[in-house]
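Researcher: Re-running this chain for the archive, since the previous output was lost when a drive failed. Same request as before.
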Amino acid sequence: MGIQELVLPELPAMLWVRQRYQIPPAVDIGVCLEREWSRLGSDLGIKPGARVAVAVGSRGIANLVEVVSAVVRKLKDAGCKPFVTPAMGSHGGATAEGQKEVLKARGITEQSVGAPVEATMDVVPLGEKNGIPLFVDRLAHEAEGIVLINRIKPHTNFIGPTESGLIKMAAIGLGNQKGAEHYHRLSVVRDQYEIISTAGKEVIARAGVIFGVCLVENQDHRTCDLRIARAERIEAVETELLKKARACLPTLPLDEIDLLIIDEMGKDISGEGIDPNVVGRDVCAYGARRPLPRITRIFVRDLTEGSEGSALGIGQADFTVKRLTDKIDFQVTAVNCITACCPESGMVPLTFDTDRDAVAAALLTLRPFETGDVRIVHIKNTLELNWIAVSEGCVPDLEGREDLEITPEERHLEFDGDGNLLSPFPRLMS
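Model: Regenerated structure tokens:
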């Protein structure tokens, strides 16, 4: 069968489903920071005039500018000379200027936070622990103290008491390209949680970390918790907050899906572009194995502007379209994939000119099905799951659940004259 002969079968009726999460309320950043700062105490253990590196990552974190600028003000009030430095491994094309541009895109500039932004890809070796070499950003190492600021959340590739947070930032983020690449390569033969946990805790202990700021976001991507922990308390606080963050993780309400249509992927949505915690897939050789959900085929339609050309994670999809692949910066993607020691993550799936052809191809690779029992789910991305569209074949497993609202009005997957799927999500979420 030639590609031009693909025929789109009759598509099932779709219904809107609204997920009713138990959402922790958002907090007042200023009030929380004042409370936590008072708990921290006035003695930071460093001399007046000391340079302090404030480590900030590449993720799209809510209220990031407000948090960083408040921490900078507190450090200045304490007599320190803070500066912001990227802690993002190989992101930004693994260049100092590229990483400063990533921070700028997140709103972090000298003007916005009140401190200069300084970057380097140089690292200083700090010895080793249990056969795991330790690295730290040179500018952070030369400073007289380090402050870590990061969101606490489940990791995309491993599962443990601490996952994505301050400990990971200390290992992968402050390790720059060299550390990130080495730890990911080591993950091929050793447990990744053990590697990152060991390296991160040792860097915190040896590199002069003063304290860390832990942030948790709710399902609406608003800050619902903020804690400041001295270096020796970071692991305990992060372990506690990860439980809260995991409970706030948006998920799909179905265990079995035939076809998942994703409007967009990107590094500003998940570190893996498409969050493995949501779709249950992890193509990396060392990745966590999640039994649920079981999704037969994934079709991803576009790449976010915030990805800056990185299509890391596209290897989780089975089908895509030229709209997405035309936006890929293959050099940036290659750097990310090689650093992560996961070339599988950048493997481009079968690519079609139109959404119509991609959907037709995907349906041809499913189990034998009837129009009324095929399970199709349509989402905007793996971060925004308050509203999803499901085919009629999904409804029997969703009815009667108090955490879901199924709208009675039926709709269909519609395509324009060029074969592009007409997504309802911008209108629905506006």
